[in-house]
Amino acid sequence: MRKPVIAGNWKLFKTSGEAVDFVTELVPLVKDIIDVEIVIAPAFTVLATVQKKLEGSGLHLAGQDCFWENEGAYTGEVSPLMLSDAGCSHVIIGHSERRLYFGETDDTVNKKLKAALKGGLTPIFCIGETLEEREAGDTFNVLRTQIAGGLKGIPAGNVNRMVIAYEPVWAIGTGKTASDGQAQEAHKFMRGLLSEFYDWTIAEETRILYGGSVKPENIKGLMAQPDIDGALVGGASLKAESFASIVRFKQ
Ligand code: 13P
To answer: Which pTM was predicted?
Structure first.
């Protein structure tokens, strides 16, 4: 059984006051939910503040990125060790915004995934095609290349410790969600890749999330798909009420 994961990616939003207000409102709204892994990924500067507010809540904290070394002369970077130290259990890696604006490649993503796993974090490994790639009929090729590149050299025993997030770039922040069928098709394909690269047990155990304009109104349909194990939520994770209703998708 794959435990569903609902993760909120705050991106470049929320000062410490706003983060505290959010968590204060969210925790009571989801405190009875024990069968969903709830993750919040704030900006680095508010991790420690959010962590204090999450103590005892059962909610998980994530970084939005990490570097592949634990320490050294790398100005501006944050390491897996530092994320753990700040109370993170998860880290988002390879988000399409990082690939687009900050030069991340399958190779850097691969190094970061290995470092995060080594540091005991659960990586949320993001992949997804652009609109041009989808329209050119290249979606499956792109997903194959990104998964193969990201997972290069990562042993089977580590793969099922991570979470994969399928985020079609054309669905991010556009209000244009992939249909339940489009998302399921991609997720099924990715699970097939995991069984090709590893084996069927690994494929069955690894959780694959959908991301891209997830909202309270569309989460139920997505979660009803057999290969969708949760969601990585951007905009709708910024309000406690909408994030809580996504977390409560079973009701
Ligand atoms: P939106 O939910 O705002 O489309 O963002 C999705 C995303 O990029 C989550 O990582």
So the answer is: 0.98
| Residue 232 in contact with ligand 1 by CB distance below 6 A | yes
- Assess whether the C-beta atom of 211 lies below 6 angstroms from ligand 1: yes
Q: Which residues contact 103 (CB under 8 A, 6 or more apart)?
A: none
CA distances for 119 relative to 73, 85, 197, angstroms:
19, 11, 24
CB 99 within 8 A of CB 149: no
Lowest-pLDDT choice from 6-15, 19-28, 96-105, 175-184 = 175-184
List the residue whose alpha carbon is closest to atom 5 of ligand 1: 234
Long-range CB contact pairs, 179-185, < 8 A, 24+: 180/221, 180/222, 180/224, 180/225, 183/210, 183/222, 183/225, 183/228, 184/225, 184/226, 184/227, 184/228
The SS3 assignment for 75 reads: coil
Ligand 1 centroid distance, CA of 8 (Å)? 8
**Alpha-carbon gap, residue 110 to 116, rounded angstroms:** 10
Question: What angle do the packed helices 240-247 and 16-30 form, to 10 degrees?
Answer: 40
Residues 25 and 76: their CA atoms lie apart, in Å, by: 32
CA distance 184 to 145: 19
Whether 92 and 65 have beta carbons less than 8 Å apart is answered as yes
- Identify the H or E element spanning 38: strand 37-41
Helix and strand numbers, DSSP H then E, in the chain: 12, 8
The token duo for 208 is 């694959």
Average pLDDT over residues 216-229: 98
**Confidence class of residue 206 from pLDDT cuts 50, 70 and 90?**
very high
